[in-house]
Amino acid sequence: MSVPRIIGIVLVLNEDLFVRNAVENIVDFCDEILLCDNGSTDGTASILKELSATHPGVSLHALKHPSESHDLLKPFIGTRTWVFGVDGDEIYDSERLREFRIRLLSGEFDGIWRMKGNVLHCTSLSSDHSSATGYMAPPSRSITKLYNFNCISSWEGDTVERLHGGSIRFKNGFDDSLKLNFQESLGWEETPLRCLHACFLKRSSLDQEEGSMRENIMEIYRGGVSAAILRFLGRITGRRLPSRWKQNLYRQGPLETIDARVFLL
């Protein structure tokens, strides 16, 4: 049997404020990391180039369209590979990941197709990065993406970006119901998979407004006609609206404050 492995795939666009943390916090968890730059114009490309040069197993890929990130994963389909999808504003607890890696590669979760974890959708960060405040998942939506590619025989079709959209064909004995959502059974202090999501903060040195104004890929490419019209009106009037995706899914429940030192070392 082949040796199990973990492949990280990081898709970014203008993320130079947090992308170094996002990548360095998963280096020890992953056997290989694919850094996918979707046309950044700030300092992101330089940071990614440095990371790929200094960390073995980390490679840099310049994309013309975010869908190309999914194409990079096709060689791993049907193999004993866990694929870990990370964005430039997703900062994981590296120590928890190191401990979780042992369990993951031991085969403990081989019967699981997809995992999600606990998340703090961050609205503010203290000046010394010692604490972060935001909305917890749950009750907000989790954004963690960890997939067992040994469960599937193909993933084709209209994939807007890696691990989104398209049509999946499962191997015999597996299906889409085989999910493990740590956030539903474990609290923030117990979960092996937890993430500081800087989605409401400025993520680029070029940003002139807070992160809540930045739409994600699914909003841009799958938002439909109404979203496109609102986007157009916002551009011509200069009155942009906050991301509806973030407002509806990531601002649920009360504000909570956590110790952020383990995330931003």
The number of distinct helices, counting runs of at least 4 residues, comes to 8
Overall outline: globular
CATH architect. name of the largest domain:
Alpha-Beta Complex
What's the CATH topology label of the largest domain? Spore Coat Polysaccharide Biosynthesis Protein SpsA, Chain A
Quote the beta fraction.
25-35%
List the domain count as a whole number. 2
- The count of β-strands is 14
Structural class label: alpha/beta
Low-confidence stretches: none
Q: Strand sequence of the main sheet, in spatial order? A: 3-2-1-4-9-6-12
Top-tier CATH class of the largest domain: Alpha Beta
**Roughly what percent helix?**
10-25%
Beginning-to-end CA distance, first to last residue: 38 Å
Mean pLDDT: 91
What's the helix-strand series? EHEHEHEEHEEEEEEEHEHHHE
Rg estimate, integer Å: 18 Å
Largest sheet: 7 strands, mixed
